[in-house]
Amino acid sequence: MSGYDFDFFVIGAGSGGTRASRIAAAHGAKVGVAEERHLGGTCVNVGCVPKKLFTYAAHFAEDFEDAEGFGWTVGPRRHAWPALIANKNREISRLNGIYERLIAGPGAEIFDSRATFLDNHTLDVGGRRITADKILIAVGGRPFVPDFDGREHVITSDGAFFLPDLPERIVVVGGGYIAVEFAGIFNGLGAQVTQIYRGNPFLRGFDDDVREFLAGEMVKKGVDLRFDADVRRVVRRSGGGFSVDLKDGGTVETDLVMYATGRVPNTGGLGLDAAGVATGRGGAVTVDAGWRTNIDNIYAIGDVTDRIQLTPVAIQEGHALADSLFNPSGKTVGYEFVPSAVFSQPEIGTVGYTEAEARAKFGALDIYRSEFRPMKHTLSGRDERGLMKLVVVRETQRVVGLHVVGPGAGEMTQGFAVAIVMGATKRDFDATIGIHPTAAEELVTMREPIPDPVPLAAE
């Protein structure tokens, strides 16, 4: 150990830090982990886990209505927000305990304290001076709220998970997946929701067909989408509630304003300067292909590097890093075909390139696209449609993008992602027998590509 207290010290016990610490400990390293808040990090406590539970809750409103078309008589119903919060808190507490066992089980030592750098091998952990041979930064990110008049009146997604009650009117500001998901959650649970986004449409970085299709479906469900709009100020009203004044002169009256305008690396106050660690845009820790910073013994993974802000990516990175440091196996992480889901209403599942990205990288494409009414709604009567899209490189016929909007889109996409990572072609899709009747079979039964777009010069 060359005189250090630990072989490997991890700052942050989120999903990535937890995986790295327990794999390193399992390989025989002496490992320490510092977490100043709750074990499990953002995902477990104020991210994907409680968000998915809230999404389930929101869907029941439509499920009750849909049941009537199948012969069920559903009586009076109401939603008790405090009960949802209490049950969610109990589940998160259970998961915190699981994470503690995951870390401590292989022998890592947990410090319920903040850790800051004193130099590249030394940390202040809750007032205790600790040294380590190798140090991992896995502190994740935090919500970003821009400066504007009335900023003190708004909450972020962190606060949304602990509201004492559900307001009648809610404004959600932002156009990323968190904003879209919460707009659907609040709307499904009965609030009057207005979503404000300065662009048009939302979900920048997703396939354009998906963005436009989801916007149309959300409007049908009752969300008031305000694109090309930006907030000038938020004013508290003396009688209660707030006025959201827009830069175009419009005003939205509301009981709650939630900002979901992105997340930034949570590097403030870590003492990175004392260790000489370089950062980039927004405070993101700069790393090479092996997650090493500019300081040889210091590494970083997950959202703090601002590469791909997804929990499974951080987990894979943590595992691969621990292996490379303490039991080299050649394990790597591929970033080209990372599947993801947006738990919007309806849901999005996606893997690979958008159509625009694929045209820029591969040139000529074959695009297969289908819109349809989910079978469930032939009896429910609900006006909800689904979208399926395949992006195929014309020359090789490799499928490089798959995009789904509809019920179960995330579950569906996970399976197809395996095929796409393995290099499946459109012929492989065509040779696969569909499961009938399912929505997923549409992805293996689309036969004719849509016509190529007309070049602008020929219009």
How would you concisely characterize the structure shown here?
With 459 residues, this protein is of the alpha/beta class. The chain has 13 helices and 21 strands.
Please supply descriptive tags for the structure shown above:
single chain, 459 residues, alpha/beta, FAD/NAD(P)-binding domain, Enolase-like, domain 1, 3 domains, seven-stranded mixed sheet, five-stranded antiparallel sheet, 13 helices, 23% strand
Structure, explained:
This protein is α/β, with parallel strands linked by helices and 459 residues long. It folds into three domains: 6-142 and 264-326, FAD/NAD(P)-binding domain (3-Layer(bba) Sandwich); 151-261, 3-Layer(bba) Sandwich (FAD/NAD(P)-binding domain), CATH 3.50.50.60; 340-451, 2-Layer Sandwich (Enolase-like, domain 1). Helices cover 31% and strands 23% of the residues. The chain contains 13 helices and 21 strands. It has helices at residues 15-26, 41-46, 48-67, 81-104, 157-160, 177-188, 208-220, 272-275, 311-326, 355-362, 377-380, 409-421, 426-431, and strands at residues 6-11, 31-34, 109-111, 115-119, 122-125, 128-137, 141-143, 169-173, 192-196, 224-226, 231-236, 242-246, 251-254, 256-259, 263-265, 298-300, 340-342, 348-352, 365-372, 386-393, 399-405. Strands 1, 2, 3, 4, 5, 6 and 16 form a seven-stranded mixed sheet that branches. Helix 3 (48-67) packs across helix 6 (177-188). The protein is globular, with a radius of gyration of 24 Å.
